[in-house]
Amino acid sequence: MPAINAYLEHLNPLSSKTVSQRAKANPAILNLSMGEPDFGPPAALVDVICREDLNKERFLDAVKRYEHSRGSLSLRRAIAAWYRRRYAIDIDPESEIMVTHGGIEALNLALQALTNPGDGILLAAPAYTLYQRAIHLLNRKSHPLPRPEGENEYAAALAANTHASARAVLINSPENPTGYVMSDADWQALADDSHKGDRWIIHDEVYDTLAFTRPHLNAWCIPALRERSVLINSCSKKFGIPGLRTGWLIGPAKVIEAASRVHESLCLGVSILGEPIAERLLSTPEVDDWMQQQQDILAARNRYALSALGEAQGFRWSRRPMGGMFLFPDVSALYPALPTRWRDFSPDAGSAVAEYLLVERQVATVPGIVYGVESRQHLRLTNCASEQVFNQAIARLSSLELGGKGD
Q1: First CA to last CA across the chain, in angstroms?
Q2: What is the spatial distance between Cα 124 and Cα 103, in angstroms, rounded to a whole number?
Q3: Which residues are in the Aminotransferase class I/classII large domain (predicted)?
Q4: Are 331 and 350 in contact (CB under 8 A)?
Q5: Can you give the CATH number for the domain in which 302 is found?
Q6: Residues 128, 160: one domain?
Q7: What is residue 20's three-state secondary structure?
Q8: Are residues 27 and 104 in the same domain?
Q9: What digits encode the pLDDT tens for the residues 35-60?
Q10: Which of 143, 215, 290, 384 lies 20 to 30 Å from 40 when distance is taken between CA atoms?
Q11: What pLDDT, on a 0 to 100 scale, did the predictor assign at position 24?
Q12: % helix, strand, coil for the chain, step of 5
């Protein structure tokens, strides 16, 4: 057999999916590994969605044609109206928005539209797993941007950046996995860096409606960045519908034109079936109240987890989540207390503790090393599982006690 792509041959499966599949195979395991929201879609809209958006007429219309390469204009107008309502910014639905197969396609399109093969991308550490993969698959180079823990992490990281020639910087705020939300000082530093280095800003804001302790801003809220940035967003997290795979890319008209050429070359158009559902969710004002309720629930869960999981259980919170769907504790203090077989499993605390919790405590988490080597002492836990699963999982974790090494 001829050789296949060498990078893909050695590319491991996505860790969160692998752990989640192991967890789903055993009903006794409490799954805090995958960012699949238990909430949503809004119950008040389910019946009308089934009646008006998933009926026979809609079905036949959707499956008999290809969608416009930028997605339905009606949905793009709904997206523009949503940004006007939430952020008081005007976006041209015809030239500055395109609908994508979720946020991940929007990311890949942005990388291809804004950079060339071999270009460097500044990537904050820690970072969502798929960023690194997308950069490498597209033959770009990732330049790590280590972030010191604190209140203005990007400002500090950019001040120490040595990769002056990087073509773009990729940010995620609110962030997966740490829950960090960009500060005003971060945005000022990012704007200064973009102009000084002639760099694009790629802002993944899929958790935009889940900012708890610091307000969320996107790059287009800053007038000086509008022609130097793109936004990636999605219905998956905010409305609890990841299976719909409806996202979007916002950018200057020239960027959207370039991205749409890539999009139509790869897949012709998005699935039409999901577009009216996304449009309804974005256009119904009452959904804003529902999203606020979900935000309040997740913020309360974070407070519960932080109070229940402390140093006595081996958890250290060097970064307290400001938003998003995840918790990211340091578990290095728990590692020495593990039985020998689990310490032998991995020298990295996050990997060893995650495997121990999955097998011995039946709680599924994700080892921090998948978000960068700097995070090898951490675990990622999702806060968006069902209330019962989340509370039971935290109760199990809070029963951990540090002690001497066991065998």
Answers
A1: 47
A2: 18
A3: 29-396
A4: yes
A5: 3.90.1150.10
A6: yes
A7: helix
A8: no
A9: 999 999 999 999 999 999 999 999 99
A10: 215
A11: 84
A12: 50, 15, 40
